[in-house]
Amino acid sequence: MKKRFAYWIALFLVDILVAIFAPRLTNQNIFLEILGVLFIVYAIVLNSIAGRTLKLYGHREKKDKFSPPDKFVNIGIFSCMRHPGQFGNMFFLVGIAFLSSKIIAILFSGWLVFLGAMFILFVEESEAIKKFGNDYCKYITTTPPFKFSFKCLREGIEAIKDK
After folding, report:
1. How far apart are CA 135 and CA 138, in angstroms?
2. pLDDT attached to residue 162
3. pTM of the predicted model, to two decimals?
4. 3-state helix, strand, coil in the chain (%, to 5)
5. Which parts of the chain have pLDDT scores under 70?
6. Quick one: DSSP state of residue 147?
7. Which pLDDT score, from 0 to 100, does residue 98 have?
8. Tell me, what's the pLDDT at 33?
9. Which of 39, 7, 154 is nearest to 106 (CA)?
10. Which InterPro entries has this protein been placed in (predicted)?
């Protein structure tokens, strides 16, 4: 858990540093900045829905503080994609880069998203398979790891507001 958290923090820090210190090759671009804000808002919404869903459905007994789920969750936003929180993290990385309006930062964020996706698919997926077993293996065959869809957001919101 701590290693995963450290990995994502490292990606965020590298992304921010590149966005700050990369040379500006073009003028500031309001379109890129607006797109960056939209990506960041989408990231926050995805993370919020995913976190709330895991808090409501991911524990056998109610917990007040943050803790990893001990129960398999495949409802709400998790019925559309396996890793909505991490997908939100990726949008956050890209949003920061677009907000900087620096082409180098935007291109570099693509590599960070690639590294994030590989970490999820090779490290976190194997941990989930060990933890949740056959249920998770079946889930992998029917649900994509990531999916950009406003329908997924709606399903996620409905799952949390109903409970």
Report:
1. 5
2. 67
3. 0.87
4. 75, 0, 25
5. 1, 63, 162-163
6. -
7. 94
8. 92
9. 39
10. Phopholipid_MeTrfase
